[in-house]
Design a protein that fits this description.
Layout (H helix, E strand, L loop, with lengths): L2 H21 L4 H9 L6 H4 L5 H10 L2 H11 L3 H10 L7 H4 L1
Helix pairs in contact: 1-4, 1-6, 4-6
């Protein structure tokens, strides 16, 4: 497996963990749904869309207390979450132009 493919796979795994973290939190989930415009019953379908996993990590990164709590609960350095975002489709700095 190439380094880029390995990084993307690790980033996807981290983003899926982040989605589980958000979904399990009764305060974060409604905020995530409101910001993204996704309905709760559509999350599974939305997860297959390009950019969705990057959006989950962007949501985590956008709020420092959430970022720090996720990092602590998962044992993931906060900087690794930013690196994971950049390894995902539409997770680069040009994501707005890519949509």
């Amino acid at each position: 497996m190439t380094n880029a493919a390995s990084m993307r796979e690790e980033a996807e795994t981290l983003a899926i963990r982040a989605l589980g973290f958000v979904a399990a939190d009764p305060e974060l989930l409604p905020r995530f749904l409101a910001i993204t415009g996704i309905e709760a019953h559509s999350i599974r379908q939305a997860a297959g869309e390009p950019g969705f996993l990057a959006g989950v990590l962007q949501f985590i990164l956008a709020h420092e207390p959430t970022l720090l709590r996720f990092a602590e609960e998962t044992g993931t350095p906060p900087a690794a979450i930013g690196r994971a975002l950049r390894a995902l489709p539409l997770g680069n700095e040009d994501h707005e132009r890519s949509i």
